[in-house]
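pipeline: protein-struct stage 2 | run 1193 | Peptidoglycan/xylan/chitin deacetylase, PgdA/CDA1 family
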Amino acid sequence: MADGAGRWGRRAVLGRAALLASGAALGATATSQTAWIADRRLPLADGPASAAIGSRHQQVGTGAVEVTWGVRTSDRLVALTFDDGPLPQWTPMVLDTLDRHAVPATFFLVGARAREHPALLRGRLGRHEVGNHSWAHHDLARLDAHAAYDDLRRSHDAIAEAAGVAPRLVRPPWGHLGGAVLHAAARLNYRLVLWTLQMVEGEFPGDPAGHARRIVADVRPGTILLGHDVGAERRLVALRGLPDMITGLRARGYTFVTVSQLLGHTTAV
């Protein structure tokens, strides 16, 4: 009896294991199908992950968008860029420094701020260029394709009116990319520009010269350098050190150019 009970117990266990395995396989299949349906329909229905809208012809300008972090070159060229402006407290300080040193830069402007402070730009952008940095510095990577386009289009028009020239470059806030951002950039015939090197103000509290030395040492040929002409008080350490940064890079043989000049010089990396 004991042996029979043992054999029966083993058979029951094996049978139940087989049923569980079969159920697990069916469950995995169902889960896989559910995930496929979700992946196929939810994010791709013009949402943030999608770089396509529906099944009709895509209205995407020239049909392509390039993303650039920097360029490959042996020439000592560097593109200085500033994000988030314009605002009265900081933007004139940056423009004054650039004017004194005859340095061009690229300003990625927030459309709402450009519309509110157009006088900060008029007559001061002769050697500079402007790019689009969204309407209100919200995360475009969270928007669907229609909303991302509407945001950038609204900002585009405000920047063109305030600066007197339409932007041809875009830099999404925080560098956040998504399919909807790419789609909107393509529709507007933008070149999408990120950066190679970012200023590190938080590492040098109260030490503009130290911050400038760090940036000068880290720049390589073809660098796109990110700074800000808006922000927290700690960021002023970079702007106060901007003259040392400029003279330090020139001492290393660097020439300052706009982003478009840099992009026209060679191929992107």
